[in-house]
Amino acid sequence: MLTPRQRIILRQIVSPPYIYRWAGLLTTVGLIVGVAVVVLADTRTSAVLATSAGPAVASPSGIRARTAEDAPARGMPGVARPAITSTRLTVTSTTTERPTVALTFDDGPNNVYTPQVLDLLAQYRAPATFCMVGNQAAAHTEMVHRVAAEGHRLCDHTMTHDATVGYHETDLMGRQLDFSRTSLATVFDPPAPIDYFRAPEGAWTPILDEMSARTGMRPLGWSVDTLDWTQPGVDAIVNSVKQSVHPGAIILFHDGGGPREQTVEAVRQLLPWLQEQGYAFTFPN
Ligand SMILES: [Zn+2]
């Protein structure tokens, strides 16, 4: 049997005085808030790291290694590309009556493939738009310079090719766009205007549209996807254009982000073919 003193202690444990109940409740609430703060801070830090500029992101060869999450997001059959609004598809009409196409090259600049693409474009006097990744541009400023010097236009494609950029908080989103835009613009003195912004993998959100427009960049989509980044073979890339091209088309190629020999060869075949079909090359409006 319990002594009276033991009974008192037991009663206090089972039914503690109010002061202890409050202390217990406050401790529990404190612990929950503490855990929440740590989790949120960690998420924010990851986001900051994901969007900050850093030489570590670019590989020594200058070829951007796609992150593990890039490929499945692009290639997954169940994931539909977001709808592209008509404003992103308008192409500047030329003074001639010829139908026009706009050639666009993403994920560069790359010191192997970009020069080859530029040589071909020069051969056919074809202007194009290059959607560059900021880290790549910073690693190959001479390429950025050559692209602009040869009459092509520059397009911001985020600092790190972050396909989730449209879902970040606005300050982080702004940083991805601004760092990249600055890395392109400041290759020139005075800084060059950057005309377009293209969301990596076409992952647009309304706020991303709005933010790129606010910084003076036109959201740039595409209407012919060559899927060249999947390396489907030169014929498949060429045929995708031959079957889908139309007056006012914006054609999506990649001059960086992986091996692009197929793209270069396809462009070599497509430039004369497009000319034969009567197309003139122009910039997206
Ligand atoms: Zn891209």
Description:
With 285 residues, the chain is an alpha/beta fold. It folds into two domains: 4-51; 57-281, Glycoside hydrolase/deacetylase (TIM Barrel). The protein has ten helices and eight strands. Strands 1, 2, 3, 4, 5, 6, 7 and 8 form an eight-stranded parallel β-sheet that branches. α9 (234-244) packs parallel to α10. The longest helix is centred in the N-terminal third of the chain and has 34 residues, at 18-51. It is elongated. 37% of the residues are buried. Mean pLDDT is 79; it is low at 41-95. It binds zinc ion. Zinc ion binds next to β1. Residues 99-282 form the NodB homology domain. It comes from Actinomycetospora cinnamomea. Pfam families: Polysacc_deac_1 (PF01522).
Question: For the CA atoms, what is the radius of gyration?
Answer: 27 Å
Give the termini separation.
Answer: 92 Å
Global geometry:
elongated
Largest sheet: 8 strands, parallel
According to DSSP, the number of beta strands is 8
Reported CATH architecture of the largest domain: Alpha-Beta Barrel
Parts with pLDDT < 50 across at least 5 consecutive residues: 41-95
CATH topology of the largest domain: TIM Barrel
Domains, number: 2
- In terms of structural class, how would the helical and strand content be classed? alpha/beta
Q: State the order of secondary-structure elements, H for helix, E for strand.
A: HHHEHEHHEHEHEEHEHE
